[in-house]
């Protein structure tokens, strides 16, 4: 696990965009794993800028969303498929058929979950997966006590997560769905490279538990310790509870020039 502490979220976003750009250049038909929420937005903005100003192309790529709310109509502005289109994919040249997301509005949710697992496998698996972390340590919508081997399935959001996400629903908790269809932790761990982003003071505690604490279902992000290729990009505020922060800074400062992410 490589942990990089940057002065600002914008610097972390540039590094995350570099990782995506590298995958787009290195892989013939790259498969990108996308998260929603606030954390990856600066990375998406940077990728859009590179597309518009530098010609970075996504034309050969496919993208898979981590999760989707269950209980919202497909055309709800906060449905994650609408969110990612508005914030990212409508502004790049990703083919319309290249965007995949779990169908949270399906009548047969279990079948939709299994279909999504199959779609990811059929695409050859995810090359680079971007992740945020919930204030309760979740990744995707795998809440504390999720099985570390879980697959795409229906999950119930904790009240912490619903309160955190109420800001997207006019601060009205009653509008925040109670369920999601999310890639499981086992599904996420199959991505070849995982980039975890964490910004701000509210992420300091879950981040420290995730990267320095024991591996436990009570902190779903701690499962990332089992993955062979994880890059953690955090700002100073999110790094305040890392006991090994000096070592991470020293490691990055002395990173050999030939070593990529
Ligand atoms: C979003 C997702 C969630 C968020 C997490 C952090 O697709 O899967 O795990 O990454 O809730 O959300 P923000 O970035 O809004 O703090």
Description:
32% of the residues lie in helices and 16% in strands. With 261 residues, it is α/β, with parallel strands linked by helices. It has a seven-stranded parallel sheet with strand order 1-10-9-6-2-3-5. Strand 2 (31-34), helix 2 (41-54) and strand 3 form a beta-alpha-beta unit. Helix 1 packs across helix 2 (41-54). The longest helix is centred in the N-terminal third of the chain and has 18 residues, at 9-26. The N and C termini lie close together (10 Å). The model has no long low-confidence stretch (mean pLDDT 98). Bound molecules: fructose -6-phosphate.
The overall pLDDT, averaged over residues, is 98
Radius of gyration: 17 Å
The coarse silhouette is globular
Number of helical stretches of at least 4 residues = 8
Low-confidence stretches: none
N→C terminal distance: 10 Å
| Biggest beta sheet summary | 7 strands, parallel
Annotation keywords:
261 residues, alpha/beta, 7-stranded parallel β-sheet, 32% helix, globular, binds fructose -6-phosphate
Task: Describe this structure in a few short sentences.
The chain has 261 residues and is of the alpha/beta class.
Topology:
Blueprint (H helix, E strand, L loop, with lengths): L1 E5 L2 H18 L4 E4 L6 H14 L7 E4 L1 E4 L9 H8 L11 E2 L8 H14 L5 E4 L21 E4 L2 H7 L13 E4 L2 H4 L4 E6 L5 H9 L17 E6 L9 H9 L8
Parallel strand pairs: 1-10, 2-3, 2-6, 3-5, 6-9, 9-10
Antiparallel strand pairs: 4-8, 7-8
The site of fructose -6-phosphate has 14 residues, from loops.
């Amino acid at each position: 696990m490589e942990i990089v502490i940057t002065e600002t979220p914008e610097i972390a976003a540039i590094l995350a965009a570099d990782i995506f750009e590298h995958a787009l250049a290195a892989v013939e038909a790259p498969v990108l794993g996308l998260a929603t929420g606030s954390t990856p937005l600066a990375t998406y903005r940077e990728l859009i800028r590179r597309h518009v100003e530098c010609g970075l192309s996504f034309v050969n790529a496919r993208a898979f969303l981590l999760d989707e709310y269950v209980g919202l109509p497909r055309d709800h502005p906060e449905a994650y498929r609408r969110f990612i289109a508005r914030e990212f994919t409508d502004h790049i040249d990703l083919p319309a058929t290249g965007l995949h997301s779990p169908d949270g509005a399906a009548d047969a949710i279990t079948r939709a979950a299994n279909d999504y697992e199959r779609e990811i496998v059929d695409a050859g698996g995810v090359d680079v997966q971007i992740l945020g972390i919930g204030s309760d340590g979740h990744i995707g919508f795998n809440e504390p006590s999720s099985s570390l081997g879980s697959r795409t399935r229906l999950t119930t959001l904790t009240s912490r997560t619903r309160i955190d996400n109420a800001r997207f629903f006019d601060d009205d908790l009653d509008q925040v769905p109670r369920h999601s269809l999310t890639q499981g932790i086992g599904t996420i761990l199959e991505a070849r490279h995982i980039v975890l982003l964490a910004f701000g003071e509210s992420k300091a505690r879950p981040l420290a538990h995730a990267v320095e604490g024991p591996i436990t279902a009570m902190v779903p992000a701690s499962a990332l310790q089992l993955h062979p290729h994880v890059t953690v990009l955090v700002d100073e505020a999110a790094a305040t509870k890392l006991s090994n922060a000096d070592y991470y800074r020293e490691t990055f400062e002395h990173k050999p020039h030939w070593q990529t992410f």
